[in-house]
Write a structure and sequence with these properties.
The chain is mostly beta strands. The relative contact order is 0.13. The chain has three domains: about 50 residues; about 325 residues, Immunoglobulin-like; about 170 residues, Immunoglobulin-like (Sandwich). About 15% of the residues lie in helices and about 35% in strands. It has eight helices and 33 strands. The structure holds 2-acetamido-2-deoxy-beta-D-glucopyranose (NAG) (12 copies). Pfam families: Cu-oxidase (PF00394), Cu-oxidase_2 (PF07731), Cu-oxidase_3 (PF07732).
Length: about 600
């Protein structure tokens, strides 16, 4: 018996060595995330926030194109958890996307390992928990994918890489916010804007109370840094700026942009940008870093402003004076939209692969499917306040969509999402878009609400080809940018305006299309696009992972022993070996 397990161990070690040799080109990177509540006082009042490994915000995931990433999540919250990798395309594997329509949740006290390859992607993304409004309490962090060394980036290597997470923030936790929404109330004005989980620097003693811990970013004079900014907030569009410094825009959610200077840039909920910032000032003082609410009554929202400090190592004093001004465009609603239109793709730069980004000539591909999605103000359905998209308020399936397909569970959802908004009364439904594999879809996001929204599609980068005020018509196509529209995963739709995107449906799976505004998302403003390859092949989608969780109609398939914390398996060697083998198999399947 002992001999046999020794042989088995040797055999496994050999397999591992062999595999690690053949996998040498695409290294395996792993992270352990323990998700729990901690007490923090970002706005001066103690509250429970969601931390990762005791940190709020969570650590940066920093990997290189084509790395195989494993993230073992230990759920120490008192509720279910799913972690989402926003903007990470999860090629061929919506099994790893961390949203309720595709994955069963990780129950409290359980752990689960996400495993995916960051295939052919570079850029700035972030992760966050998707259930129960949890993002409003934290659990987020930056997700950086670097270029492979052999593929040059379209600028000089920066002196350093800095992550800045900005977002509106409530002193109430996600449970309390959820209760408000369940009771049919609005969330109301946020209590502040956090920068890297910290409250504002006391730039004004009337507006900012004493004793708030603020973020300080230390830099060396004369050097250029890449600053990655993510709006991880609940629902507020933020204007980002650094006093006296130009922001040279370089990348947005995985696309290198045409490099242009901005004194400030509007960053909508869920969006990410990289700026190159040269520390070219004289360091007579520190400088303010500001994230302030956009499209709101400024005199009422003054308190809701994030302020951090840019500190040169040779700085001679504290930041002083008023904050740098936000765009003064109260009477010019096209200013922000024109800025958005000015963000363009650098067609000659290489992205993750050596060929230029623009070699995918999206402008010459024929559209196969058109969907006009309409966002309207909240409605009441069956006595409940709900958010809709095209008249449908999404109800999450009890059995996740792709899992239902795999195990032939009937009636989990309907592939009947309408191409144009419903004209009848709004309804609640598990209604999903029937995507055409290898189709080229045009989606119009018509925002008929009075609030800004941003929309995110999982699994893909979409081409942002147009936006304008008023109602979209077929004639609007004449204004599309068919050459250097930016490719990204999260796009804004201005109130009373439309945004048009194009997407090449080449990634098999079921992918979430949602508003990033947490309140509307929670109230049902989302759907999924289901893309299946009609051809019977296992090449276009990875098999269901060995550790897949089961729920809903399939909950009887869930084996309790599949889920165990480290404590219960250490000291049990054969189980450990088994786990190792499982990991190896999962790895092999990534390359299958
Ligand atoms: C959230 O806040 C409520 C009310 O303040 C409190 O009772 C509850 O314990 C908090 N929940 C968490 C998970 O922090
Ligand atoms: C749970 O975590 C342990 C290590 O802490 C790991 O070995 C095991 O694979 C994890 N279980 C799952 C289902 O991911
Ligand atoms: C676009 O990318 C090219 C190739 O890397 C680079 O040389 C050029 O400076 C970039 N152009 C702009 C305007 O950013
Ligand atoms: C990622 O890691 C590299 C070294 O491997 C480092 O140079 C870079 O600054 C890191 N980026 C971030 C955002 O942490
Ligand atoms: C601080 O803010 C208050 C309220 O907006 C304003 O009246 C006051 O002038 C500000 N103080 C300074 C020193 O700017
Ligand atoms: C951007 O501004 C910096 C000064 O902050 C300047 O050196 C640089 O040439 C500008 N770049 C472009 C592309 O305008
Ligand atoms: C440094 O720059 C500030 C702002 O541009 C200017 O007011 C100040 O006179 C400069 N100080 C020195 C020592 O050059
Ligand atoms: C903004 O709020 C202030 C203070 O509540 C109010 O006096 C003012 O009329 C508001 N401005 C607009 C344009 O609504
Ligand atoms: C697109 O459609 C037009 C007209 O229907 C057709 O002539 C053309 O060949 C198509 N282009 C491609 C790339 O399929
Ligand atoms: C979904 O679309 C495919 C074509 O892409 C079609 O064959 C199929 O019948 C459609 N399914 C439903 C339920 O409409
Ligand atoms: C919403 O749509 C209605 C009907 O088309 C239109 O009258 C109204 O101006 C729109 N409002 C916004 C904010 O788009
Ligand atoms: C995929 O299909 C091929 C041919 O049908 C088969 O040989 C192979 O084992 C399958 N691979 C996986 C990972 O299921």
């Amino acid at each position: 018996m002992a001999l046999r397990s020794k042989f088995l161990a040797l055999f496994l070690i050999h397999i591992c060595l062999l595999l690690s040799l053949c996998l040498a080109a695409d290294p395996f990177v792993s992270y352990d995330f323990e998700v729990s509540y901690i007490t923090a006082s970002p706005l001066g009042v103690p509250q429970q926030v969601i931390a990762i490994n005791g940190k709020f915000p969570g650590p940066t995931i920093n990997v290189t194109t084509n790395n195989n990433v494993a993230i073992n999540i230990k759920n120490k919250l008192d509720e279910n958890l799913l972690m989402h990798w926003s903007g990470i395309q999860q090629r061929r594997s919506s099994w790893q996307d961390g949203v309720l329509g595709t994955n069963c949740p990780i129950p409290p006290k359980w752990n689960w390992t996400y495993q995916f390859q960051v295939k052919d992607q570079i850029g700035s993304f972030f992760y966050f928990p998707t259930l129960h409004m949890q993002r409003a309490s934290g659990g987020f962090g930056s997700f950086v994918i670097n270029n492979r060394a052999i593929i040059p980036i379209p600028f000089d290597t920066p002196h350093g890489d800095i992550v800045i997470l900005i977002g509106d923030w409530y002193k109430r936790n996600h449970t309390a916010l959820r209760k408000a929404l369940d009771a049919g109330k609005d969330l109301g004005m946020p209590d502040g804007v956090l920068i890297n989980g910290k409250g504002p620097y006391q730039y004004n003693t009337t507006l900012v109370p004493d004793g708030i811990d603020y973020e300080t970013i230390e830099v060396q004079p004369g050097k250029t840094y890449r600053i990655r900014v993510h709006n991880v907030g609940t629902s507020t569009s933020l204007n980002f700026r650094i006093q006296n410094h130009n922001l040279l825009l370089a990348e947005s959610e995985g696309s290198y942009t045409v490099q242009q200077n901005y004194t400030s840039l509007d960053i909508h909920v869920g969006q990410s940008y990289s700026f190159l910032v040269t520390m070219d000032q004289n360091a007579s003082t520190d400088y303010y870093i500001v994230a302030s609410a956009r499209f709101v009554n400024e005199s009422q929202w003054k308190r809701v402003t994030g302020v951090a400090i840019l500190h040169y190592t040779n700085s001679k004093g504290k930041a002083k004076g008023p904050l740098p001004e936000a765009p003064n465009d109260e009477f010019d609603k096209t200013f922000s939209m024109n800025q958005a239109r000015s963000i363009r793709w650098n067609v000659s730069a290489s992205g993750a692969r050596p060929n230029p980004q623009g070699s995918f000539r999206y402008g010459s591909i024929n559209v196969t499917d058109v969907y006009v999605l309409k966002n309207k103000p909240l409605v009441t359905i069956n006595g409940k306040r709900r958010a809709t998209l095209s008249g449908i308020s999404f109800v999450n399936p009890t059995t996740p969509i792709r899992l239902a397909d795999q195990f032939k569970v009937k009636g989990a959802y309907k592939l009947d999402f309408p191409e144009t908004p419903l004209t009848g009364p709004p309804k609640m439904a598990t209604s999903v878009i029937n995507g055409t594999y290898r189709g080229f879809m045009e989606v119009i996001l018509q925002n008929n609400d009075t609030k800004m929204h941003s929309y995110h599609l999982s699994g893909y980068a979409v081409f942002v080809v147009g936006m304008d005020y008023g109602e979209w018509t077929e004639n609007s196509r004449g204004t599309y940018n068919k050459w250097d529209g930016i490719a990204r995963s999260t796009v804004q739709a201005y109130p009373g305006a439309w945004t048009a995107i194009l997407v090449s449906l080449d990634n098999v799976g079921v992918w979430n299309l949602r508003t990033e505004n947490l309140d509307s998302w929670y109230l049902g403003q989302e759907t999924y696009i289901r893309i299946v390859n009609p051809e019977e092949t296992n090449k276009t989608e990875l098999p269901i992972p060995d550790n897949a969780l089961f729920c809903g109609e399939l909950s009887k398939l869930q084996k309790p022993e599949d889920i165990s914390f480290a404590a219960s398996i250490t000291g049990n060697r054969s189980k450990l070996l088994f786990m190792l083998l499982m990991a190896v198999c999962a790895l092999m399947s990534v390359f299958g």
